[in-house]
């Protein structure tokens, strides 16, 4: 046994995973790639999706925040359904001899191994996407990596608790708080699987403004301005950023909370980006996505309970999707499908259409009324949410022996 091998066990504290399993993360990523290939080949057992004509897909794709969750799925679909060369920008902890990396580090390396084996170019830049330095490195990577030195699609999929303003050096923290009055709601204590009551505090005006600084559209705009100024945006370029709305039940914590203010700002940024991209015949979009378990969403108060109920209701009606299926629908039915670009009356792409169906929301509301503080969740699928969270960190696979030592620095 090599000295560098350590036993990597699941360790989750306050809904934040502290470890990631190299072999399990590789499994997670390869499974997602295989599912994408099957969808694109029309051989998937899930028959809800259209097979695609890859000719319509972008061939040079930059994903900012492309190592986990929605960003990783978007990258996988771009490459393995559409044949795109891809660049990912993400913030990762590197592995050491004794400590594992963040899951995004493993998933990105595995993705790149598979992409290169398929004849696609794929690189990652690890660092702070908010900084000028990473933007400079990205411009260079676009010139060096992509044919013609330009990009056709920029996906902005950052979820971060903190941002350093590149001009002033001021550090801003985002908060997940409500606005107006404190908000008390049932919630889910994931370790015990029990219903709890939480009171979400009110964000101060400064905290709300800081959250907009971190998760609003300023950085998306800075990225696009920089990429345009450097001449690396292709004619007809498209850029998409991800947002969330959700049902009224979660409005006090999400849409009408501090994060909702940031999402509003992100959505309004389209009004600045479209004129910027006009001479390139480019266009910017917001895609409103479904509530799904990711590293970012699992720490939002109240939302995990909503997701546990939502998952069960949507699964029962064969409407449940993961990030991968959402990304697949984004590419094939909203952005690059034969019907052309599909948006709502406000110009937003809606991938939350199935989540927001009245019958789905009615069933979730009914399930919500059954929950009792101190009791276990009823009429919900907590285990599915936990499994999803675990699997994206490489845990919970029956055939992986988690007592077997592994080298944290080796890509499986
Ligand atoms: P995630 O935590 O899985 O992914 C976040 C990504 O951002 C990761 O790749 C991470 O490395 C990267 N990142 C964070 N800080 C960074 C930094 N400073 N520099 C470079 N990279 C950085 O989260 P997610 O849920 O996939 O979120 C992605 C986007 O999708 C967010 O805008 C989120 O609001 C939106 N969204 C999420 C949901 C949901 O339910 N999960 C629903 C709708 C929209």
Short description:
The chain has 412 residues and is α/β, with parallel strands linked by helices.
What does this 3D model show about the protein?
- With 412 residues, the chain is an alpha/beta fold.
- It contains twelve helices and 13 strands.
- It is 37% helix and 16% strand.
- It is globular and about 60 Å long.
- Nicotinamide-adenine-dinucleotide binds next to helix 2, strand 4 and strand 11.
- Nicotinamide-adenine-dinucleotide (NAD) binds next to helix 2, strand 4 and strand 11.
Cα-atom radius of gyration: 21 Å
Strand order of the largest sheet: 5-4-3-6-11-12-13
Give the SSE order as H and E letters. EEHEHEHEHEEEEEHHEHHEHHEHH
- Determine the fraction of residues in helical runs and give it as a percent range: 25-40%
- Tell me what portion of residues adopts beta-strand conformation: 15-25%
Q: Which compounds are bound in this model?
A: nicotinamide-adenine-dinucleotide
| Number of helical stretches of at least 4 residues | 12
Distance between the termini: 16 Å
Overall pLDDT, averaged?
96
The main pleated sheet reads as: 7 strands, parallel
């Amino acid at each position: 046994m090599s000295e560098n091998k350590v036993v990597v066990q699941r360790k989750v504290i306050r809904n934040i995973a502290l470890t990631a399993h190299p072999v399990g993360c590789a499994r997670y990523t390869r499974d997602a790639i295989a599912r994408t290939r099957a969808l694109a080949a029309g051989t998937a057992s899930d028959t809800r999706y259209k097979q695609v004509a890859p000719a319509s897909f972008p061939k040079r794709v930059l994903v900012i925040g492309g190592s986990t969750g929605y960003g990783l799925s978007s990258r996988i679909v771009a490459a393995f359904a559409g044949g795109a060369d891809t660049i990912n920008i993400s913030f990762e902890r590197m592995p050491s001899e004794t400590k594992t990396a963040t899951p995004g580090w493993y998933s990105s390396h595995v993705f790149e191994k598979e992409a290169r084996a398929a004849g696609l170019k794929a690189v990652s830049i690890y660092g702070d996407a908010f900084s000028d330095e990473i933007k400079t490195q990205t411009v260079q990577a676009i010139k060096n990596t992509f044919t013609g030195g330009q990009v056709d699609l920029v996906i902005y999929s950052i979820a971060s608790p903190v941002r350093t303003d590149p001009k002033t050096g001021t550090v801003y923290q985002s908060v997940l708080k409500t606005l107006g009055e404190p908000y008390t709601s049932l919630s889910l204590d994931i370790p015990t699987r029990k219903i709890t009551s939480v009171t979400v505090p009110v964000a101060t005006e400064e905290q709300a403004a800081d959250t907009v600084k971190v998760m609003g559209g300023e950085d998306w705009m800075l990225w696009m301005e920089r990429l345009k100024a450097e001449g690396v945006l292709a004619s007809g370029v498209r850029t998409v950023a991800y947002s969330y709305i959700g049902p009224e039940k979660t409005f006090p914590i999400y849409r009408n909370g501090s994060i909702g203010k940031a999402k509003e700002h992100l959505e309004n940024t389209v009004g600045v980006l479209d004129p910027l991209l006009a001479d390139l015949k480019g266009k910017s979009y917001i895609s409103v996505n479904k509530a799904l378990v990711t590293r970012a969403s699992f720490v939002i108060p109240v939302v995990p309970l909503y997701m546990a109920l939502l998952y069960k209701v949507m699964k029962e009606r064969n409407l449940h999707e993961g990030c991968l299926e959402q990304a697949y629908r984004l590419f094939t039915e909203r952005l690059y499908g034969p019907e052309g670009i599909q948006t709502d009356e406000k110009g937003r792409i809606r991938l939350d259409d199935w989540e927001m169906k009245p019958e789905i929301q009615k069933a979730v509301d009914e399930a919500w009324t059954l929950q009792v503080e101190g009791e276990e969740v009823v009429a919900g699928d907590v285990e599915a949410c936990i499994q999803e969270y675990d699997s994206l960190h490489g845990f919970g696979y029956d055939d992986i022996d988690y007592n077997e030592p592994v080298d944290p620095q080796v890509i499986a």
